[in-house]
């Protein structure tokens, strides 16, 4: 025996299909949204970044004074060329050089925080060039003073280096 679906049944089926389709488009978690954001802005940065650039970056954390000072990071085609403290123009020592990454390194910091499932990651983007202008990461809300972040205090600008 065949039974035809009435208008009411067809309407119910269409609503169920539409709801399922809509739900499939929703992100599965905030981390997925942020991972997509990071990928989008990384691509924007890579398409607009100068081959050589300089910018000033402040590291934020509950740590010693030297690492809280803003540093001017100069980047050439093969990577970081120099890091100097903005206030004194003195070079950053080799033991601290990893504290202040280039812009690609800032993306790596975000990707690492996502992989390590940090409890809180806040990012403010420079939407014109695509770099993270401000980053705040809290890996565990139950541990005090392990938060860290970065603030770009001078935007990346092209340099004449080749």
How would you describe the overall organization of this protein?
This protein is α+β, with helices and mostly antiparallel strands and 162 residues long. Helix content is 31%, strand content 28%. The protein has 3 helices and 6 strands; from the N terminus they run ααβββαβββ. Strands 3-2-1-6-5-4 form a 6-stranded antiparallel beta sheet, covered by helices on one side. A hairpin with a 6-residue loop joins β4 and β5 (132-138). The longest helix is centred in the first third of the chain and has 19 residues, at 7-25.
Q: Major beta sheet, specifics? A: 6 strands, antiparallel
Run of helices and strands: HHEEEHEEE
Question: Helix count, per DSSP?
Answer: 3
Structural class estimated from helices and strands = alpha+beta
Biggest sheet strand line-up: 3-2-1-6-5-4
**Share of helix, binned:** 25-40%
Query: What are the segments in which pLDDT stays under 50 over at least 5 consecutive residues?
Result: 18-30
Amino- and carboxy-terminal Cα gap = 79 Å
Q: How large a portion of the residues is in β-strands, by DSSP E?
A: 25-35%
Radius of gyration: 23 Å
Q: Mean pLDDT, rounded to whole units?
A: 83
> How many beta-strand segments?
6
How would you sum up the global shape?
flat
Summarize the model shown:
The chain has 162 residues and is of the alpha+beta class. It contains three helices and six strands.
């Amino acid at each position: 025996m065949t039974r035809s679906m009435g208008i009411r049944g067809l309407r119910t089926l269409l609503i169920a299909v539409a709801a399922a389709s809509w739900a499939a488009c929703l992100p599965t978690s905030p981390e997925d949204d942020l991972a997509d954001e990071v990928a989008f802005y990384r691509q924007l940065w890579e398409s607009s970044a100068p081959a050589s650039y300089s910018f000033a970056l402040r590291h934020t954390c509950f740590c010693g004074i030297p690492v809280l000072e803003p540093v001017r990071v100069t980047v050439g085609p093969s990577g970081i060329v120099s890091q100097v403290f903005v206030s004194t123009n003195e070079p950053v020592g080799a033991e601290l050089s990893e504290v202040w990454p280039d812009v690609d390194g800032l993306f790596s910091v975000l990707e690492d925080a996502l992989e390590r499932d940090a409890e809180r990651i806040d990012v403010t983007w420079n939407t014109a060039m695509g770099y993270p202008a401000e980053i705040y990461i809290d890996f565990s809300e139950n541990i005090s003073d392990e938060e860290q972040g970065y603030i770009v205090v001078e935007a990346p600008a092209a340099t004449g280096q080749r």
